[in-house]
Design brief:
Elements: H1 4-13, H2 24-44, H3 51-54, E1 56-61, H4 69-79, E2 85-90, E3 94-99, H5 104-118, E4 125-130, H6 132-161, H7 164-187, H8 194-224, H9 233-243, H10 245-269, H11 276-306, H12 309-328
Antiparallel strand pairs: 1-3, 1-4, 2-3
Helix pairs in contact: 1-9, 2-7, 2-11, 4-5, 6-7, 6-8, 7-8, 7-11, 8-9, 8-11, 9-11, 10-11
């Protein structure tokens, strides 16, 4: 069995090659299935937005010995019977209660009811209110942040690589990452919060970094080697992806390990649920970003360029020379 080092050498030299470009139709079909399935997730499990987006009232009860969530639900319903409540345990000594928007009088009554339910002083219960206008501002700023990120990405990549087709391939890869990551995130039942949005933007940056490294190698193979390499354009793109494959895998694993530790040990085991939103988004996005760069962005760029007249002519000469060499042999 080959070692990882030997595999990396074989991939770099072309002795071993995975058909990222040669079987791109299959990868595009799989990508389309994943995107459509992710887009349909809200029909099965509606996307939940945090109180920062929807607005509402929030109560935090501290200093508890046994934070039973049902006590909080009963306390809220004793004041507002039809209120929608969400109760979250924070560590082992506190609970957070989120409800619909309540009036000041109802908020005061709920505060007293929670204090009585948990047998703590009233000053151990903190209440806050988030209005719908603030939630709308958060939503608008999040969308603006995403739009500005994608626009800057397009311009910078077009300038750096001197071709808009690399920018288009990279942007489509980023959109693929975003949709699939949000779909998996929603399917897991987690609510989308400002922390999750930060996680989504962070993972887009990671995906952009991975794509840029692969595209830089593609540019090197397709422009510096040129016709003397004896490879067609698609073969040069495929070689570049294989040459950076081990690096992409190693980077993803190294990046995922600390995030996974935060998610599974900090959030799930120790109960630090405030870290769950951003860590889950980044953890899922790391692997989706790696997949998208290798199976979507790079093959798309090859598809966009292969029909250009100069490239078609060069590929034809390469194939003709290869056939002549085969006949001569």
């Amino acid at each position: 069995m080959r070692s990882m080092n030997q595999l990396g050498n074989d991939l770099y030299s072309g002795k071993t090659s995975f058909p990222f470009v040669g079987r791109r139709r299959l990868w595009f079909i799989l990508a389309a299935v994943l995107v459509i399935a992710s887009a349909l997730v809200p029909l099965i499990r509606p996307v939940q937005f945090s109180i920062e987006f929807t607005g509402g009232s929030q109560f935090t009860v501290s200093g508890l010995e046994s934070p039973d969530q049902q006590d909080a639900t009963d306390a809220v319903h004793s004041v507002v019977p039809d209120a929608t409540t969400k109760v979250t345990t924070i560590g082992s000594t506190a609970v957070r209660v989120q409800t619909d928007q309540l009036t000041p009088a109802e908020s005061q009554d709920v505060t007293e009811a929670l204090a009585a339910a948990y047998n703590v002083p009233v000053d151990e219960v903190t209440a806050s209110f988030i209005g719908p206008s603030w939630g709308a501002d958060v939503t608008r700023q999040s969308l603006w942040g995403l739009a500005i990120f994608l626009a800057l990405t397009f311009v910078i990549l077009a300038l750096y690589f001197r071709t808009w087709k690399m920018s288009v391939a990279a942007i489509l890869g980023l959109v693929d990452v975003l949709i699939i990551t949000i779909g998996i995130y929603a399917l897991a039942g987690f609510e989308i919060s400002p922390a999750a949005v930060i996680g989504f933007l962070t993972i887009l940056s990671y995906s952009l970094y991975d794509t840029t490294v692969v595209f830089d190698k593609i540019r090197e193979n397709t422009t510096e080697d040129g016709e003397i390499s004896g490879r067609t354009f698609g073969e040069s793109v495929n070689l570049a992806v294989n040459q950076t494959l081990i690096r992409s895998i190693n980077t993803s694993v190294v990046a995922a390990l600390p995030v996974g530790a935060i998610l599974f040990i900090g959030a799930f085991w120790l109960g630090a649920e405030t870290l769950t939103d951003i860590s889950l988004a980044i953890f899922v996005g790391i692997f989706v970003a790696t997949y998208s760069t290798l199976f979507v962005a790079a093959p798309l760029y090859s598809l966009f360029r292969e029909n250009e007249a100069p490239i078609k002519e060069r590929d034809a000469r390469v194939v003709a020379a290869r056939e002549r060499a085969t006949v001569a042999a």
